[in-house]
Design a protein that fits this description.
By secondary structure, the chain is an alpha+beta fold. 46% of the residues lie in helices and 20% in strands. It has a 5-stranded antiparallel beta sheet with strand order 2-1-5-4-3, covered by helices on one side. Strands 7-6-10-9-8 form a 5-stranded antiparallel beta sheet. The protein is elongated, with a radius of gyration of 66 Å. It catalyses: ATP + protein L-histidine = ADP + protein N-phospho-L-histidine. Pfam families: HATPase_c, HisKA, PAS_8. Residues 519-740 form the Histidine kinase domain.
Amino acid sequence: MLRLLERSITLQLLVFYCLFLLPLLLGGVELYLFQRNALQQNATRADLSLAQAVALDVEAIIGPAINIDTTLSYSQEAKQLDRQQLTTAFSLAALAQPSSNLYAVCDVSGNLLLASPESQAHNLSERQLCRHFLPSMQTNGSLISISRISLNSGGSLVVLARRISDDRGKVVGTMLVTLQLERLAARLLSMEKQWNTNGELRTWVVDHEGHPIIQPGQGPFAADSRVSLPGVKEALQGRQGSLIAQESNRDWLYSYMPVSLDGGYWGVVIQRPTDSTFATVVSFRNSLGIALFMVLIGASFFWFAMHGGVVAPLKKLAQAVIMIKPDQETKVMDGRLLARERERIDEIGQVIAAFSAMEDEVHDLFRKSDATSQARLYTLDAIMHSMNEGLLLEAPNGHIIYANQRFTQFVGLSPNDLLPPIFDEHKAQDALLSLIEDPDVYQQAVHAAETGSGPDVIEFYVRGYHNPVGQHIPVRRVVRLRVFQVRDQTGELIGRGKVFQDVTRTNEAELIKKNLLAIVSHELRTPLTSIKGYATSLLETDVEMESAIQEDFLRGIVIETDRMAELVTSLLDMSQIEAGTLKLSPGLYPLDVLIKQALPEQESEKVRISLPMKPSLINVDGRRIEMVLRNLLQNARRYAGADALIEIVVRYEQEDGEVKGGLYLSVIDNGAGIPADLTERIFERFYQVDSGRRRSSSGVGLGLAICRGFIEAHGGRIWAENRADGATGAAFHIWLPPRVLYPPDAQPDMFALLNIL
């Protein structure tokens, strides 16, 4: 993420813009939440204070009336139902409690016994007073009438009833006190007018049973306010508080307060809509929202102004600088990209002018150094392409960045594949790996060399190579790879180089040198040892030898001497072949005679010869052709076995399309055959087929190489292959051109024979 921010100034400014706005918005939200809670608490406390004031008024009016009713019911006058005494007590009570406008006593049957003042008694019937409060005789507390008043009627009464018991505890009647609530109603109306600015403040006063004593409006009373009025239940349990409830799809704030009366609780509930109660909160929220919105608009305007005036020109300038190339013909700073910004005279305009001058200097320097650099590059490239070794240059990450012509030729790519639009490093790698015999071992060795954990010179085998015309030559080759590091002047690694060198000939020459010393010394030491042994025995004077034994020793000396002479002759012939100084001594020879002379006497019965009906004379160097045939027969016997069947087939062919005319001679055996990859290599000098444990035969490995040299000197060709007729065995084929053939019916002209070759 930090890397991404470092690459774009737009993202950096956007992050700073967000870091500026985010704390501001969070602070505004935090301020709103804090102030909202504070304002809501203030409004709630105000409603609770109003409910508490109403509760105090109710307690101040109802409480004394309950106390008077209780005092009168426990007086001796009430216990004895003394009317005269009760009338006096009622007069005194009326002076103490002006709100009480009627005092009455009923007997246990519900009959009115006494009422004071008598002027108010005619307004009430017995059923309304005495019989209605008969249940009060069953309880010790005060019973309050369920009659209620409206705030606007002013004529309703609240009647307090309490039973009267004599000294023995017998219920003798009921003490009634009627209470006029006009003063309380006026008080509540005044409060509502003071607090209720929109006519939506409502006040309820309910008794301990939940029946409303005072409620707003003149509508019918609810049977039980606790069902429909939130907060009543909590107030009647002696708790105070506030809650918000919904009514008619509108939220209302209910503040409730208990009134402690006669050992129980009455309740006061204040109801107001939340939108008017919390109007200050809504106003504060709207003001804060408008302020934050204005800040957001101002910050956004600043952002767009900053982006359009500073960031966008800098981005265009960065794009233009990236487009500057030393070899570019048109000037980037004068293009359409910076058309508007070039006219500015502030710091951005100055920076653009500086880059424009720098671009001119870069182009001038490039023009001055281009010719020299190009000459150096062409010279270096010519040197790379002139190398006999393949060269591969790689970047530190392993990608190929250069390959010379020798490498691409070796792996079979054309010179055009080196051009940048076409050059494919994967194609070059795949082409190389397809030639390597063991790619896994090669890659492990290269990795070890690159990391420094292995040698930097590696040798590996390839299955073949491609010649200059792109043909694949399936010959096993040995390639030496040298890995080196490429560093700049400061020593920083900037790449790796790989040099591929075909060391097949070098290794073979080294091997030939070693084998020549070992083989020649062995082949010369063996006959010399035999000759020395024979000669030493013949020189012994104290031993008498028979003439036959002496003759055998002398014959052995001659045989070993001929063997040494043959080895020396082979070496001389091989040196003449390689030097191109071999001279032939041609003559006319019957082919069947040459074949029979090449056959050892003991082998004549084991070799089957197939000749044409009329064998021709051939104009060849008889001694050397006989040596070729002898070497092929000895080679067949040596590798096919003593009991192998050897066949010599001769045929003459006329020129016919793809078939060349001339003499074809084949030496075929039924041995094990020749490994497919060695059919060409066996004609190399000093090479012998290895059985895997020891050399298969004696000799120096020059026989087949000399045979090829003699045949090619006659203009022919010799090659080897395994039999193709379904049987095992090897077949050596010799082809001689038609010019060596002499017609079988013609008489030889001794003078013309000299001009045949």
